[in-house]
């Protein structure tokens, strides 16, 4: 599934965040999460991407039996998984669980103040900053404003 979604998204400004397949033969649910570097994907964008992925699934006969394809943007509850998501959300609050250089499990909460190709920076309310490599992250989520 991932390969089909990536094929559809390759020429577009949107990118694949995750694909989850649930259910059993004949009752499969395929959830595809798509994001955009600049802004959240619009409903028209998601509908067009969904049609194209659905077309490829049918052409490739990639799913045996019936299935339901659900396409959406990741939303605030899903973890950040791609460096482009971090860059897009600079200035927003985050909660991050990660491994330190020594291998200890750490948590930090604050504002996402910078992000590049290899790591990102979180600034706590106290002003303390933490530079964290994407490879060290075990979970990172946007902090909801309420």
What does this protein look like?
This protein is of the alpha+beta class. It folds into two domains: 2-72, RimP-like superfamily, N-terminal (GMP Synthetase, Chain A, domain 3, 2-Layer Sandwich); 83-142, SH3 type barrels, CATH 2.30.30.100. The protein is built from three helices and eight strands. The strands form two sheets. The protein has a five-stranded antiparallel beta sheet with strand order 7-6-5-4-8. The chain has a three-stranded mixed beta sheet with strand order 1-2-3. Helix 1 crosses helix 2. The radius of gyration is 17 Å and the shape is elongated.
- CATH architecture level-2 label of the largest domain: 2-Layer Sandwich
Q: Unreliable runs, pLDDT <50, ≥5 residues?
A: none
Mean pLDDT: 93
Number of E-state strands: 8
Rg result: 17 Å
Q: What CATH first level of the largest domain would be assigned?
A: Alpha Beta
User: What number of domains?
Assistant: 2
Structural class comes to alpha+beta
Gap from first CA to last CA: 36 Å
Count of helices?
3
Strand content: 35-45%
What is the string of helix and strand elements? Answer: HEEHEHEEEEE
CATH-wise, what's the superfamily of the largest domain? RimP-like superfamily, N-terminal
Q: What does the overall shape look like?
A: elongated
CATH domain fold name of the largest domain = GMP Synthetase, Chain A, domain 3
Strand order of the largest sheet: 7-6-5-4-8
Largest sheet: 5 strands, antiparallel
Helicity, as a percent range? 10-25%
